[in-house]
Amino acid sequence: MTAPDIQSRKDGEKICCMTAYDYSSGMIADAAGMDLVLVGDSLGMVVLGHEDTLSVTMDEMIHHVRATSRGVKRALLVADMPFMSYSTVEMALENGGRFLSEGRAKAVKLEGGENVVPQIEALVAAGIPVMAHIGLTPQHVARFGGFKAQGKTLEAAKALVEDARAVEAAGAFCVVLEAIPVEVAELITKAVDIPTIGIGAGNVTDGQILVYHDVLGLFDRFTPKFVRTYVQHGKEAVQALEMYGKDVRSTRFPGDKNTFYLSDEMAEQVRKIKIKKKK
Ligand code: KIV
């Protein structure tokens, strides 16, 4: 998948997107037929255990994007630009370039609307496709006073439409709408010709994205209303490790099938080796 492939799906078949953070989650998302895989800075919370996404660094992101790129063969791989990595056009170009050359991503995502137009224009002009992200942008959580839905007043709804139009005009190939009332998401989706990818924006957007750990039940510190968890892998993993622990303590593991054996003749010789006791 390429950025133009995603862009051409406006009003077409829904675009399925998922986050992934390493080789194995990238491979799983790709095997499941995701169209777009985002190495989100949400990894700060679900992989690195931070309170929010603000402490994620460029070097950490590059490390995870490189690993994920080895597992993703078909989907469009997008790297999320972390907090303060695109504060100026120069920084956006340098860091966006690193994601493509070092990380092997095919596009970048950044948070913001009209305020990041110069950065989007410069990245696109440099040949770096940009996925925009408006609404509840987690890097601005301090300004929002928490993880709260956005666009709930007439003014705020209109401002979101203007943000979406601004990132479209700047050259973004799609835009994430996070935690926005469905009526506002519909208005935005109709107002722009690029696909909207919703997360907590109802079923009116051109595509959906969720966080891998939320979908698979691997992160339960908090689960936003808009998440659907399809399997409880976290609980299953604890049960599996408990079973392993019991087997080790009771010597049921390792069993014959997990054990290497010598030939009878060699085993006999090894048994005869005399070992001096340590003093
Ligand atoms: O960081 C992230 O995972 C994201 C998506 C949830 C859109 O920004």
Automatic annotation (TrEMBL):
Cofactor: Mg(2+)
Highest taxon of the lineage: Bacteria
Record SUPFAM superfamilies: Phosphoenolpyruvate/pyruvate domain
Keyword Transport among UniProt keywords: no
Pfam families in the cross-refs: Pantoate_transf (PF02548)
Binding-site residues for Mg(2+), renumbered to this chain: 41, 80, 111
Protein name (record): 3-methyl-2-oxobutanoate hydroxymethyltransferase
